[in-house]
């Protein structure tokens, strides 16, 4: 059964109904007991629906960790992925405010890790051969994000969620 709650930032989130799910939903639970990994971030429903529209599958099972210490070890990067997981060096709200980054990282998880196309070994080999920027996995994710960012933003606008598609100006 699906339940909902309103997070700290006022967005409505959906979770599985467990007490742990509620704690994560409200942003009061750390992913690890000691907090070294970071905090789990629950996507706003409108963003999750827009991603589902773009990827043609649910994204609710993908775990997003904000302010991950592990991600922060990757100097110069704001995110890294693992199977079914996105680790952010930034906040979840900053992540959602950057549609191309959001699509890029979800592409890694849903289209590369989940299918078995991307593995840790293949990624390392690809980086050694071609470097980070010319790595085929990164090129594919960048191309996917660039090709779908307007589609994603259009879906959010059609749903009346203009704030989620307007990047913050810094």
Q: TL;DR?
A:
The protein has 170 residues and is an alpha+beta fold. The protein has one domain (34-165).
Could you describe the largest sheet, including whether it forms a barrel? 4 strands, mixed
- The arrangement of helices and strands along the chain is EEHEHEHEEHHHH
Strand content: 5-15%
The neighbouring-strand order within the major sheet is: 3-4-6-5
Task: Write up what this structure looks like.
The protein is of the alpha+beta class and 170 residues long. It has one domain. 45% of the residues lie in helices and 14% in strands. It is built from seven helices and six strands; from the N terminus they run ββαβαβαββαααα. It has helices spanning 19-25, 45-55, 69-72, 92-96, 99-113, 120-130, 136-158; strands at 3-6, 12-15, 39-41, 63-66, 79-82, 85-88. The strands form two sheets. The protein has a four-stranded mixed sheet. A hairpin with a 2-residue loop joins strand 5 (79-82) and strand 6 (85-88). The longest helix is centred in the last third of the chain and has 23 residues, at 136-158. It is globular, with a radius of gyration of 16 Å. The N and C termini lie far apart (40 Å). The model is unreliable at 22-36 and 166-170 (pLDDT under 50).
């Amino acid at each position: 059964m699906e339940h909902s709650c309103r997070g700290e930032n006022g967005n409505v989130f959906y979770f599985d109904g467990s007490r742990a799910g509620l704690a994560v939903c409200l942003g009061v639970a750390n992913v690890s007991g000691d907090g070294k990994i970071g905090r789990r971030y629950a996507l706003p429903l409108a963003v999750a629906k827009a991603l589902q529209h773009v990827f043609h599958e649910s994204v609710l099972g993908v775990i997003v960790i904000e302010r991950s210490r592990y991600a922060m070890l990757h100097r110069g990067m704001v995110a890294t992925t693992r199977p079914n997981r996105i680790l952010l060096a930034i906040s979840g709200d900053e992540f959602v405010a950057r549609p191309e980054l959001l699509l890029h990282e979800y592409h890694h998880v849903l289209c590369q890790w989940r299918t078995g196309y991307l593995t840790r070994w293949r990624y390392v080999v690809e980086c050694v051969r071609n470097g980070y920027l010319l790595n085929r996995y990164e090129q594919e994710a960048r191309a996917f994000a660039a090709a779908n960012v307007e589609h994603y933003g259009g879906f959010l606008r059609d749903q009346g969620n203009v704030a989620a598609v307007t990047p913050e100006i810094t």
